[in-house]
């Protein structure tokens, strides 16, 4: 009788611990909201919340692409540089157009065409990442680190390090309307609506399609996935293309919100994307992750960043705190995996005894 009670008590404790661990990101988000609402009287104001939502949208879109990559067991350090390069491409095409030196003419394109071309740039960079990793067997960390420098260098070369300012277009040239991404629909920032759309599509693809199952299979056991007939290289390339497109979207939104394009835009944002994904439960070992968790993780990063700014915390301390957050997130993730393995082992042992 006592043994039965002890077993039941242990199961209840394990169940409670696992529930808290799985919901840790949401719990942390609530605690942060409460803390900063007391630390800064303006934190919960409408203007602050709208600004926070804009920042979260940028981190969230980047983090969704990063989640796909990390689930396969990879990493993408180039996304921040892609943000800067794509912003410069879009800003340059609006302000300077495309000069065809051989013909001696300059072409100006409509905003939809500029957006399509910019997204294509992001996709091509993602494709390069995927090819280098799969065809040449270069470690994702090294491959994307190299591409990060290449993309950032091209962003600088695009304008010799200068900023494209006041990129609102010219009615006579038919390239106005870029400011749409800084507007609101039904009172909601367009960037947030784009985040919602991407999150829904990415979530459905990840959980409800064969492509999503293949992503999880590769991260869980790449060799087994390959033996099962999964086209590992193809899936990886597509994942990095998706990450590149997500970064390009963020580059477009950022340039629109600032009405300017600077080659250093997005610098360090790859760390925010990784942190959001890991905080949301994506395992750095691969094979585990959810889009919903990543979006909540993006909110946590956004609240930490904006909250510390409003409280006057030094930028240097902000970097330290974000680093500690990433480390703690990985430690907690590892603890959760060990707990799950322990519970599974106990369940098997009890089944044998019964």
Automatic annotation (TrEMBL):
The keyword Nucleotide-binding is assigned to this record: no
Segments traversing the membrane: 21-44, 56-86, 98-125, 131-151, 185-206, 237-261, 273-304, 316-332
UniProt membrane topology term: Multi-pass membrane protein
GO MF terms held by the record: transmembrane transporter activity
Superkingdom of origin organism: Bacteria
Chief location category: membrane
Subcellular localization, as worded in the UniProt entry: Cell membrane
GO cellular component, one term: plasma membrane
Keywords linked to the UniProt accession: Cell inner membrane, Cell membrane, Membrane, Transmembrane, Transmembrane helix, Transport
A matching Pfam family: BPD_transp_2
Listed PANTHER family: ABC TRANSPORTER PERMEASE PROTEIN YPHD-RELATED, ABC TRANSPORTER PERMEASE PROTEIN YPHD-RELATED-RELATED
Protein's recorded name: Erythritol transport system permease protein
Organism: Pectinatus brassicae
